[in-house]
């Protein structure tokens, strides 16, 4: 049997794994999913003997069987190399009684590096597997972290161009500076008036615009996506759930087969969906704990079954989670509705027209069984950064603090004795301003200059990945509105001058 990916919204759309990676999004607006997911099985005993690289290879082979063994090995070894400042790639630390999975040791010090270090390799190989001649144009909307990680991943990759759109006032100064100083002949960064949802919605519409696709075809180019709507981005994220589990087994913290919980600071629902996939593959997972910030649309959904974006968008100190439309939820709905494509299509239509949908009772029950959710206020986020530092001398970033606080809520609500891993999705230096303020109070100093002060006061060194960031030269200053995004793309792509 050759594994096929279908659209969440249409069962008759069927593509091979490589094509799903190259396309990014199905033409009908749906996301690619493997119908046969429940037939994939992993030998957990064997997995527990493997390190990160071999775990990643096993997972990728399962999801991308039309790649050769060599293609998979090559992708994994080139992605997870000395770009990471920790040999373990994803080390697990013990802080008090809690386990913290540190996902921020890659080149842009956020968890997006895990997937985006490997996606360009997978995409190039997928392109050759599909005999595709066109250049790939990666379109990416970012709430801050995806953008830089994707730029670093695709920078100077032959046969690709990457265009990143970020919300003009929606990212941290460190995030913005990281993006606009990106080098590379094929990288473009554009500030968009509006918030992340505006940018993401516009990107999805552009990817679905058949006239524009045709224009691109005439230029010998093809769009793809580096957002977590791309299955090639999602699958690599499954690896660290297994490698962390194996790590805890090796350290004799748990026995093989023992269920553990994961707490995931959630935005676009990619990371936590990878956990759901891991569980489907046989990883012993108890509850998937979904941590939200004040944009608590997911908390409401997981508690009521009603997804409602008729609400104000809030800017918080955990900006990578400032999202109202969580794209990957669509994949969860597909699996939870027993792969009912028509039903998913209907819900997505409701979301578009009514800005709201409600799932049926069967799904509500499943959601309750699998997930637990809560959300963390701005004040509690800051308080948690400070409390954890004072108690354990460990500096949390703001997103991780949201997860930490939600886990405390979970413990007091349930008393669940299972071992639990909190996912840490960014280095505290990526959000220096908010972290410094939470620990030491207000300051007049600009964020980029605060890094040294944060380091001096906490004794944690500034990651070498962002050292000297303040002095780097700004190389990108494009700006547009959501309405003019497609014009901006055409301008960039038809630009004859060298950058
Ligand atoms: C992207 C991001 C998240 C949210 O992850 P999703 O997969 O979008 O749910 C959380 N924290 C940080 C630091 C991020 O960059």
Automatic annotation (TrEMBL):
One of its GO terms (molecular function) is threonine synthase activity. The keyword Electron transport does not apply. Residues 4-80 form the Threonine synthase N-terminal domain. Residues 102-324 form the Tryptophan synthase beta chain-like PALP domain. It comes from the Bacteria. Its EC number is 4.2.3.1. It holds the Pfam family THR4_C. Transmembrane segments: none annotated. Keywords: Lyase, Pyridoxal phosphate. Its cofactor is pyridoxal 5'-phosphate. Belongs to the threonine synthase family. NCBIfam families: thrC (TIGR00260). This is Threonine synthase.
